[in-house]
Design brief:
This protein has about 200 residues and is mostly helical. The protein has two domains: about 160 residues, no CATH class; about 35 residues, no CATH class. It contains seven helices and two strands. The chain has a two-stranded antiparallel sheet. The mean pLDDT is about 80.
């Protein structure tokens, strides 16, 4: 079982790096977005409130932490945990703003864009689209960690006890047909190494 629990450390590296970057993007967009005139009101940087913690910072931290676990994990169970953590963070990015009115949350703020296209882009980049991409990458990583490769399977299978893989050396043109116990006894130069010669 120990062999199948070990995985190459590079198995979740790419997904882990992307999830870290996307998690940081989602967590910091409401706080640092006004630097680039892209994000959510108010038009001031590093404005913190509870709604931003619940809807952006917490799921972004979950996605980034899951990606960090995937990046350095060499254990199948740890990698699966990191994948699920990132997937939950991405799912909350996608559905959190829809469910937030249930506890009277005001949201992270109105989009800073002045056109309808900018509004759509900011919502997609900060919530729905971001969450879908994070869930996709997390699911991809979960699939990779769920597959048991040939190398892990070989590490998990012990060699049979008492098995002797050493084959005796056989000399002579027809030695393969004249193994001990098969066919007539060897004559002349047909001799199985390690076996006594037959007396004529």
């Amino acid at each position: 079982m120990a062999g199948t629990m070990r995985v190459p450390r590079t198995r979740g590296a790419l997904s882990g790096i992307l999830l870290i970057l996307l998690g940081l993007w989602g967590a910091l967009l409401p706080l640092a977005g006004p630097y680039f005139d892209f994000g959510f009101a108010p038009d001031d940087t590093w404005v913190y409130n509870t709604d931003r913690l619940q809807l952006s910072i917490a799921p972004g931290a979950a996605a980034a932490l899951g990606g960090l676990i995937l990046l350095f994990s060499a254990n199948r169970a740890a990698g699966m945990f990191g994948g699920w953590l990132a997937a939950l963070g991405g799912a909350w990015f996608a559905v959190g703003p829809v469910l937030s009115p249930l506890w009277d949350a005001r949201g992270v703020g109105a989009p800073l864009g002045t056109t309808e296209g900018r509004h759509v882009a900011e919502y997609l980049a900060g919530f729905t689209g971001l969450g879908v991409v994070i869930v996709f990458l997390a699911a991809l990583a979960l699939g990779r960690f769920a597959v048991v490769g040939v190398r892990e399977r070989l590490l998990d299978e012990p060699e049979p006890s008492g098995s002797n893989t050493t084959q005796p050396l056989v000399y002579g043109r027809y030695a393969r047909e004249n193994q001990p116990g098969q066919g007539p006894p060897p004559t002349g130069d047909q001799h199985v190494a390690g076996e006594p010669r037959w007396e004529r």
